[in-house]
Design goal:
- The chain is α/β, with parallel strands linked by helices.
- It contains 11 helices and 12 strands.
- It has helices at 40-48, 60-70, 82-93, 108-115, 160-164, 204-207, 221-230, 238-247, 250-276, 297-306, 332-345; strands spanning 5-7, 27-29, 77-80, 99-103, 120-124, 144-148, 172-176, 197-202, 215-218, 289-293, 309-313, 324-328.
- The strands form 2 sheets. An 8-stranded mixed sheet has the order 1-5-4-6-7-8-9-3, sandwiched between helices.
- The chain is globular and about 55 Å long.
Length: 346
Protein backbone atom coordinates (compact mmCIF):
# COMPACT_ATOMS: atom_id res chain seq x y z
CA UNK A 1 0.00 0.00 0.00
CA UNK A 2 1.32 3.43 -0.91
CA UNK A 3 -1.02 5.73 0.96
CA UNK A 4 -4.40 6.25 2.55
CA UNK A 5 -7.66 5.38 0.90
CA UNK A 6 -11.22 6.55 1.64
CA UNK A 7 -12.99 4.16 3.97
CA UNK A 8 -16.53 2.98 4.33
CA UNK A 9 -17.44 0.40 6.93
CA UNK A 10 -16.67 -2.14 4.21
CA UNK A 11 -18.45 -4.97 5.97
CA UNK A 12 -16.42 -4.54 9.17
CA UNK A 13 -18.36 -4.48 12.42
CA UNK A 14 -16.47 -1.60 14.02
CA UNK A 15 -18.36 -2.01 17.29
CA UNK A 16 -17.47 -5.68 17.73
CA UNK A 17 -15.19 -6.23 20.72
CA UNK A 18 -13.85 -9.19 22.62
CA UNK A 19 -16.60 -9.15 25.21
CA UNK A 20 -18.99 -10.44 22.56
CA UNK A 21 -16.95 -13.63 22.31
CA UNK A 22 -17.17 -14.62 25.97
CA UNK A 23 -19.95 -16.67 27.50
CA UNK A 24 -20.85 -18.89 30.46
CA UNK A 25 -18.36 -21.66 31.04
CA UNK A 26 -15.78 -20.31 28.60
CA UNK A 27 -12.17 -19.52 29.48
CA UNK A 28 -11.75 -15.95 28.32
CA UNK A 29 -8.83 -15.37 25.94
CA UNK A 30 -10.82 -12.80 23.98
CA UNK A 31 -10.79 -9.79 26.32
CA UNK A 32 -7.54 -7.97 27.07
CA UNK A 33 -8.41 -6.98 30.65
CA UNK A 34 -5.47 -8.44 32.52
CA UNK A 35 -6.90 -9.11 36.00
CA UNK A 36 -10.09 -11.08 36.76
CA UNK A 37 -10.95 -8.48 39.43
CA UNK A 38 -9.37 -5.32 40.85
CA UNK A 39 -6.70 -6.00 43.48
CA UNK A 40 -7.81 -6.07 47.11
CA UNK A 41 -6.31 -2.66 47.96
CA UNK A 42 -8.21 -1.04 45.09
CA UNK A 43 -11.47 -2.78 45.96
CA UNK A 44 -11.08 -1.50 49.52
CA UNK A 45 -10.65 2.08 48.32
CA UNK A 46 -13.68 1.82 46.06
CA UNK A 47 -15.76 0.35 48.87
CA UNK A 48 -14.74 3.15 51.21
CA UNK A 49 -16.07 5.68 48.71
CA UNK A 50 -19.59 4.25 48.55
CA UNK A 51 -20.90 6.57 51.27
CA UNK A 52 -20.01 9.59 49.11
CA UNK A 53 -22.18 8.59 46.15
CA UNK A 54 -24.99 11.00 47.08
CA UNK A 55 -22.77 13.91 46.02
CA UNK A 56 -22.12 14.83 42.40
CA UNK A 57 -18.72 13.59 41.21
CA UNK A 58 -15.66 15.80 40.82
CA UNK A 59 -12.49 14.97 38.90
CA UNK A 60 -10.32 17.65 40.51
CA UNK A 61 -8.28 15.21 42.61
CA UNK A 62 -8.06 12.72 39.76
CA UNK A 63 -6.72 15.40 37.42
CA UNK A 64 -4.07 16.35 39.96
CA UNK A 65 -3.08 12.72 40.42
CA UNK A 66 -2.73 12.10 36.68
CA UNK A 67 -0.75 15.31 36.22
CA UNK A 68 1.64 14.34 39.01
CA UNK A 69 2.02 10.80 37.67
CA UNK A 70 3.10 12.03 34.22
CA UNK A 71 4.80 15.30 35.10
CA UNK A 72 2.18 17.34 33.26
CA UNK A 73 0.26 20.48 34.14
CA UNK A 74 -3.30 19.82 35.36
CA UNK A 75 -4.45 21.99 32.45
CA UNK A 76 -3.12 19.24 30.15
CA UNK A 77 -5.23 16.47 31.69
CA UNK A 78 -8.81 15.42 31.07
CA UNK A 79 -10.19 12.46 33.01
CA UNK A 80 -12.65 10.40 30.98
CA UNK A 81 -15.06 7.51 31.34
CA UNK A 82 -12.52 5.08 29.95
CA UNK A 83 -10.26 5.87 27.03
CA UNK A 84 -13.15 5.14 24.66
CA UNK A 85 -14.97 8.31 25.72
CA UNK A 86 -12.01 10.30 24.43
CA UNK A 87 -12.58 9.06 20.87
CA UNK A 88 -16.11 10.47 20.91
CA UNK A 89 -14.93 13.74 22.42
CA UNK A 90 -12.24 14.16 19.76
CA UNK A 91 -14.71 13.41 16.99
CA UNK A 92 -17.14 15.97 18.43
CA UNK A 93 -14.67 18.73 19.27
CA UNK A 94 -12.75 18.80 16.00
CA UNK A 95 -13.80 19.14 12.36
CA UNK A 96 -10.93 17.55 10.45
CA UNK A 97 -10.58 18.06 6.74
CA UNK A 98 -8.76 14.75 6.36
CA UNK A 99 -8.98 12.24 9.21
CA UNK A 100 -6.77 9.15 9.00
CA UNK A 101 -6.85 5.99 11.11
CA UNK A 102 -3.89 3.64 10.98
CA UNK A 103 -5.10 0.03 10.85
CA UNK A 104 -5.25 -2.70 11.97
CA UNK A 105 -6.08 -1.14 15.31
CA UNK A 106 -8.85 -0.69 17.84
CA UNK A 107 -11.90 0.22 15.78
CA UNK A 108 -13.66 2.69 18.07
CA UNK A 109 -11.68 5.73 16.81
CA UNK A 110 -12.98 5.19 13.29
CA UNK A 111 -16.46 4.35 14.55
CA UNK A 112 -16.55 7.62 16.54
CA UNK A 113 -15.36 9.67 13.58
CA UNK A 114 -17.92 8.11 11.26
CA UNK A 115 -20.73 8.58 13.80
CA UNK A 116 -19.85 12.28 13.97
CA UNK A 117 -20.16 12.56 10.19
CA UNK A 118 -16.45 12.70 9.32
CA UNK A 119 -14.98 11.06 6.27
CA UNK A 120 -12.19 8.66 7.22
CA UNK A 121 -9.18 7.39 5.30
CA UNK A 122 -7.46 4.19 6.31
CA UNK A 123 -3.77 3.45 6.26
CA UNK A 124 -3.39 -0.32 6.33
CA UNK A 125 -0.10 -1.62 7.70
CA UNK A 126 1.17 -4.74 5.97
CA UNK A 127 1.34 -8.13 7.65
CA UNK A 128 4.36 -8.92 5.46
CA UNK A 129 6.16 -6.01 7.14
CA UNK A 130 5.19 -7.15 10.61
CA UNK A 131 2.55 -4.38 10.88
CA UNK A 132 5.36 -1.90 11.50
CA UNK A 133 4.37 1.75 11.14
CA UNK A 134 5.62 3.42 7.96
CA UNK A 135 5.10 7.15 8.51
CA UNK A 136 5.38 7.77 4.75
CA UNK A 137 2.02 6.07 4.26
CA UNK A 138 0.18 8.80 6.16
CA UNK A 139 -0.85 11.55 3.72
CA UNK A 140 0.85 14.90 4.26
CA UNK A 141 -2.50 16.71 4.32
CA UNK A 142 -3.97 14.56 7.13
CA UNK A 143 -4.90 16.90 9.97
CA UNK A 144 -6.18 14.26 12.44
CA UNK A 145 -4.33 10.95 12.72
CA UNK A 146 -5.09 8.04 15.07
CA UNK A 147 -2.58 5.29 15.86
CA UNK A 148 -2.34 2.76 18.68
CA UNK A 149 0.86 2.04 20.59
CA UNK A 150 1.18 -0.80 21.37
CA UNK A 151 -1.41 -1.50 18.74
CA UNK A 152 -4.46 -3.62 19.41
CA UNK A 153 -4.74 -6.28 17.90
CA UNK A 154 -1.24 -6.68 16.42
CA UNK A 155 0.63 -6.11 19.73
CA UNK A 156 3.28 -4.16 17.82
CA UNK A 157 5.07 -1.37 19.70
CA UNK A 158 5.99 1.46 17.36
CA UNK A 159 9.17 3.48 18.04
CA UNK A 160 8.52 6.89 19.52
CA UNK A 161 10.67 8.32 16.75
CA UNK A 162 8.29 6.97 14.10
CA UNK A 163 5.33 8.49 15.89
CA UNK A 164 7.09 11.82 16.37
CA UNK A 165 7.78 11.98 12.65
CA UNK A 166 4.00 12.16 12.16
CA UNK A 167 3.63 15.26 14.34
CA UNK A 168 3.61 18.55 12.47
CA UNK A 169 1.96 21.98 12.59
CA UNK A 170 -1.70 21.88 11.65
CA UNK A 171 -2.08 18.21 12.54
CA UNK A 172 -3.43 16.58 15.69
CA UNK A 173 -1.78 13.21 16.28
CA UNK A 174 -3.70 10.94 18.64
CA UNK A 175 -1.73 8.05 20.14
CA UNK A 176 -3.80 5.44 21.96
CA UNK A 177 -1.57 4.15 24.77
CA UNK A 178 -4.27 2.06 26.43
CA UNK A 179 -1.85 -0.85 26.83
CA UNK A 180 1.37 1.11 27.29
CA UNK A 181 1.48 0.46 31.04
CA UNK A 182 1.74 -3.23 30.14
CA UNK A 183 5.13 -2.54 28.56
CA UNK A 184 8.02 -2.71 31.05
CA UNK A 185 9.41 0.77 31.55
CA UNK A 186 6.56 2.17 29.45
CA UNK A 187 8.98 2.18 26.52
CA UNK A 188 8.18 4.45 23.54
CA UNK A 189 5.55 6.43 25.46
CA UNK A 190 4.78 10.02 24.48
CA UNK A 191 2.89 10.73 27.70
CA UNK A 192 5.43 13.26 28.95
CA UNK A 193 4.19 15.79 26.40
CA UNK A 194 4.83 16.70 22.76
CA UNK A 195 3.25 19.68 20.96
CA UNK A 196 0.38 18.60 18.73
CA UNK A 197 0.19 15.12 20.26
CA UNK A 198 -2.75 13.72 22.22
CA UNK A 199 -2.10 10.63 24.34
CA UNK A 200 -4.93 8.45 25.61
CA UNK A 201 -4.54 6.17 28.61
CA UNK A 202 -6.80 3.51 30.11
CA UNK A 203 -6.84 2.16 33.66
CA UNK A 204 -9.29 -0.62 32.87
CA UNK A 205 -6.87 -3.14 31.35
CA UNK A 206 -4.19 -3.33 34.02
CA UNK A 207 -6.45 -2.98 37.04
CA UNK A 208 -9.52 -5.04 36.10
CA UNK A 209 -11.81 -2.01 35.86
CA UNK A 210 -13.57 -2.45 32.52
CA UNK A 211 -16.95 -2.22 34.23
CA UNK A 212 -16.05 1.02 35.97
CA UNK A 213 -14.70 2.97 32.93
CA UNK A 214 -11.60 4.91 33.94
CA UNK A 215 -9.14 6.65 31.62
CA UNK A 216 -7.69 10.01 30.73
CA UNK A 217 -6.36 12.30 28.02
CA UNK A 218 -2.96 13.99 28.05
CA UNK A 219 -2.80 16.86 25.57
CA UNK A 220 -1.92 20.52 25.10
CA UNK A 221 -4.10 22.73 27.30
CA UNK A 222 -6.04 24.21 24.38
CA UNK A 223 -6.95 20.72 23.16
CA UNK A 224 -8.04 19.66 26.64
CA UNK A 225 -10.24 22.74 26.88
CA UNK A 226 -11.96 21.91 23.59
CA UNK A 227 -12.57 18.35 24.71
CA UNK A 228 -13.88 19.45 28.10
CA UNK A 229 -16.35 21.77 26.35
CA UNK A 230 -18.09 18.81 24.68
CA UNK A 231 -17.82 16.33 27.56
CA UNK A 232 -21.13 15.40 29.15
CA UNK A 233 -21.36 16.79 32.70
CA UNK A 234 -20.41 14.27 35.39
CA UNK A 235 -19.54 11.59 32.81
CA UNK A 236 -16.78 10.37 35.11
CA UNK A 237 -18.28 8.73 38.19
CA UNK A 238 -17.11 9.22 41.74
CA UNK A 239 -15.76 5.66 41.84
CA UNK A 240 -13.87 6.16 38.58
CA UNK A 241 -12.31 9.27 40.07
CA UNK A 242 -11.28 7.38 43.20
CA UNK A 243 -9.79 4.60 41.08
CA UNK A 244 -7.84 7.12 39.00
CA UNK A 245 -6.28 8.69 42.07
CA UNK A 246 -5.43 5.28 43.53
CA UNK A 247 -3.90 3.89 40.32
CA UNK A 248 -1.70 6.95 39.79
CA UNK A 249 0.05 6.68 43.15
CA UNK A 250 3.73 5.71 43.00
CA UNK A 251 3.01 2.41 44.75
CA UNK A 252 0.43 1.51 42.10
CA UNK A 253 2.74 2.52 39.25
CA UNK A 254 5.40 0.28 40.77
CA UNK A 255 2.91 -2.59 41.01
CA UNK A 256 1.89 -2.05 37.38
CA UNK A 257 5.53 -2.34 36.36
CA UNK A 258 5.79 -5.70 38.14
CA UNK A 259 2.62 -6.86 36.41
CA UNK A 260 4.07 -5.77 33.05
CA UNK A 261 7.25 -7.75 33.63
CA UNK A 262 5.22 -10.83 34.58
CA UNK A 263 2.98 -10.40 31.53
CA UNK A 264 6.04 -10.16 29.28
CA UNK A 265 7.29 -13.50 30.60
CA UNK A 266 3.83 -15.06 30.22
CA UNK A 267 3.60 -13.75 26.65
CA UNK A 268 6.94 -15.28 25.71
CA UNK A 269 5.71 -18.57 27.17
CA UNK A 270 2.54 -18.39 25.05
CA UNK A 271 4.47 -17.50 21.89
CA UNK A 272 6.84 -20.43 22.46
CA UNK A 273 3.93 -22.80 22.91
CA UNK A 274 2.11 -21.56 19.84
CA UNK A 275 5.26 -21.85 17.75
CA UNK A 276 5.79 -25.42 18.94
CA UNK A 277 2.18 -26.16 17.97
CA UNK A 278 2.82 -24.88 14.45
CA UNK A 279 0.83 -21.66 14.91
CA UNK A 280 2.86 -18.65 13.74
CA UNK A 281 2.60 -15.49 15.82
CA UNK A 282 2.53 -12.39 13.63
CA UNK A 283 4.78 -9.37 14.02
CA UNK A 284 6.86 -8.72 17.12
CA UNK A 285 4.33 -8.80 19.97
CA UNK A 286 5.06 -6.54 22.92
CA UNK A 287 1.64 -6.18 24.55
CA UNK A 288 -0.38 -8.60 26.71
CA UNK A 289 -1.94 -10.27 23.64
CA UNK A 290 -0.79 -11.82 20.38
CA UNK A 291 -2.14 -12.05 16.85
CA UNK A 292 -2.04 -15.29 14.87
CA UNK A 293 -3.19 -16.42 11.44
CA UNK A 294 -4.38 -19.99 10.95
CA UNK A 295 -6.04 -21.85 8.08
CA UNK A 296 -9.83 -21.74 8.33
CA UNK A 297 -9.67 -19.51 11.36
CA UNK A 298 -13.42 -19.14 11.73
CA UNK A 299 -13.83 -22.90 12.02
CA UNK A 300 -10.96 -23.20 14.49
CA UNK A 301 -12.46 -20.43 16.60
CA UNK A 302 -15.74 -22.36 16.72
CA UNK A 303 -13.96 -25.59 17.66
CA UNK A 304 -12.06 -23.84 20.40
CA UNK A 305 -15.34 -22.47 21.68
CA UNK A 306 -16.74 -26.00 21.83
CA UNK A 307 -13.62 -26.98 23.77
CA UNK A 308 -14.31 -24.20 26.27
CA UNK A 309 -12.12 -21.31 25.04
CA UNK A 310 -13.19 -17.92 23.74
CA UNK A 311 -10.73 -16.18 21.42
CA UNK A 312 -11.10 -12.88 19.57
CA UNK A 313 -12.02 -13.02 15.89
CA UNK A 314 -9.86 -10.81 13.69
CA UNK A 315 -12.11 -10.10 10.73
CA UNK A 316 -13.77 -7.07 12.34
CA UNK A 317 -10.44 -5.19 12.16
CA UNK A 318 -9.78 -3.43 8.83
CA UNK A 319 -6.74 -5.05 7.30
CA UNK A 320 -7.36 -8.48 8.83
CA UNK A 321 -9.52 -11.44 7.80
CA UNK A 322 -11.32 -14.49 9.16
CA UNK A 323 -8.08 -16.46 9.56
CA UNK A 324 -6.73 -13.95 12.08
CA UNK A 325 -7.29 -14.56 15.78
CA UNK A 326 -6.21 -12.50 18.78
CA UNK A 327 -5.26 -14.30 21.98
CA UNK A 328 -4.96 -12.64 25.37
CA UNK A 329 -1.96 -13.51 27.50
CA UNK A 330 -2.89 -15.40 30.65
CA UNK A 331 -1.01 -17.27 33.38
CA UNK A 332 1.01 -20.32 32.42
CA UNK A 333 -1.48 -22.88 33.75
CA UNK A 334 -4.23 -21.37 31.59
CA UNK A 335 -1.87 -21.24 28.62
CA UNK A 336 -0.89 -24.89 29.04
CA UNK A 337 -4.55 -25.96 29.14
CA UNK A 338 -5.34 -23.81 26.11
CA UNK A 339 -2.44 -25.18 24.10
CA UNK A 340 -3.55 -28.72 24.89
CA UNK A 341 -7.06 -27.90 23.67
CA UNK A 342 -5.62 -26.24 20.56
CA UNK A 343 -3.64 -29.34 19.67
CA UNK A 344 -6.70 -31.49 20.20
CA UNK A 345 -9.03 -29.46 17.93
CA UNK A 346 -6.50 -28.54 15.23
Amino acid sequence: MTGAEPASAGGYDLHHHGDREVGPGLVDLAVNVRLPRPPAWLRAELASALDSLAAYPSTVEAVRAVAARHGRSPSEVLVTAGAAEAFTLLASAFRPRHAVVVHPQFTEPEAALRAAGHAVSRVILAEADGFVLDPALVPADADLVFVGNPTNPTSVLHPASSLLSLARPGRLLVVDEAFLDAIPGEAESLASGVPGVVVLRSLTKTWGLAGLRAGYVLAPADVVERLRAVQVPWSVSTLAGVATVACCRPSAVEEAEKLAIAAESDREYLVSGLTAAGVPVLGDPRGPFVLVRVPDGASLRARLREAGYAVRRGDTFPGLGPDHLRLAVRDRATTDAFLAALREVS
